[in-house]
């Protein structure tokens, strides 16, 4: 007796669907029983996973997972979730990157009757993505290396120029002094003294340039060490201002601060920072006044402000102000290694403090050095 038309149509539909699933090659489509054992197998599953139907039917689907996934309970968790991407194993033990979707199947009463699982092999896509990441990383590294090389070449050119300038001056002054000493009659002591003063000035400049280069190398090697001691910051700043006044117009530098402001610090390194800030102000504010202020905003903090009334720093160059070897256009015209502010900030941070720049609306630049008064962080009670 022939089946009713609707039953026959349903049977044919199921056959066509089964045929469709069985013939799909790009996706592994199979069923699991409620315990996770393989209950069906299609051509795509055989192609992707390497098992023939007779080899895999009835086996637990955990055989598709690598040992580390089994050890952490991934297969059991997969039966409670929708799965996702991850490593799977083929029959020969090789791995492939899979995108898996697991769907629970329930009858009309809500009883679990099994699972439908669809897996796609995304190994080639993942490999292509990884290759793109590697290429992008290599390109970025190459660009960074090229930029570093350009920066180094620019720095070496600047360093060679800056070192050559005092050396050339020294050679000229020494020649002048030699001629003065060799000329007939007694030497002009006043002229010889002026020449020696210029020799000393250029020698000091050369020494500062070399010291900055050495400090930069120590920072690169993380070997810039501090010698902690009891320091009077107010006295240190006042001395730096008096030394700067020797080479500046009278009345250009002003100092305000307490009679004393003790803290733990490296006195030589702090002096280096103060000299750098004052040199910077004198260079970029050649005419206006320079104010140096020392204070203690609270019991745990010491602060130094160096404020000039020069042209300031153009907004487009402010982000690079403390970078190593960075020079804004006016730096290049005035000369320099582009290391003073970089080293000053590094020294401040080694002290557990900070060095910041502000640009008041009325013009000029204000550098603020903030330091903890307790000193060496390693020696603090709560360290």
Q: What's the CATH architecture of the largest domain?
A: 2-Layer Sandwich
Q: Looking at this structure, what is the CATH superfamily of the largest domain? A: Histidine kinase-like ATPase, C-terminal domain
Fraction in beta strands: 15-25%
Radius of gyration: 38 Å
Residue-averaged pLDDT, rounded? 83
Helix-strand category: alpha+beta
Count structural domains.
3
- How many E-type strands? 11
How does the overall form come out from the CA principal axes?
Answer: elongated
H/I helix tally? 11
Strand order of the largest sheet: 6-8-9-11-10
CATH class of the largest domain: Alpha Beta
Alpha-carbon distance between the two ends: 92 Å
The ordered string of helix (H) and strand (E) elements is HEHHHHEEEHHEHEEHEEHHEE
Could you name the ranges where pLDDT drops below 50 across 5 or more consecutive residues?
Answer: 330-334, 379-383
Largest sheet: 5 strands, mixed
The third-level CATH topology of the largest domain is Heat Shock Protein 90
Helix content: 40-55%
